[in-house]
Amino acid sequence: MLGTLLNAVAIILATFIGLKLKKYFSKKHTTMIFQCMGLFAISMGMSLVIKTNDFLGIMLSLIFGGIIGEILDIEKALDKFSKQIEKKVKKRIKIKKGESFTEAFMITTLISCVGSLAILGAIEEGLGSFPKLLMIKSSLDFFTSLVIATTLGVGVALAALPVFVYQGLITLIVKFNVSFFSPILINEISAMGGLLLVGVGINILEIKKIKVTNMLPSLILIVVYAKLFLC
What we know:
With 231 residues, the chain is mainly α. The chain has helices at residues 2-21, 27-49, 55-72, 74-90, 101-114, 116-126, 132-152, 160-175, 183-204, 218-229.
């Protein structure tokens, strides 16, 4: 899992570089950067969604995945986890006024996990290929994490953990089930990831608060749907 390991390290390294550069960024600069990131996330997500072979499957998987996520309240659990870590971090690192540990963690985690590169890159490495997609993703996540860290602080570094676990699990699952992941299935998973990325972009732009974390089970449901009706 070389690609995933490098990705996690890139996020941690970028966080601490971002903290050092924080003083050079004014509020209007960081606001503009976040607006650009939000627009980019939406445009990238839409470019993936339109490639689906079955919009009905995407819609049904998203709806039922969202319901499951609401019942489990994944976002609340993740928020609770980040706040527990924040309490421990505060004992060692001073979190400055205006920084949000939990928001930094949540935004970075979602941006890093639900995009197509996270899914396709982990699949590529699981199939035994050199992880060039995760290398590219590591570079993108480095600059994204650096920018978020300049605004929201040290909580960005914690996102390295779910990124490592999420991508690592996908890689291991694919490694031991190579024949299961057909091109059609990979395309539908990528399309669903793109739709969730649109939700992340909307959150970043503060257009509407969307519980994207609670929609993550839809990534599993689209696999089931694709296997039953498309593959």
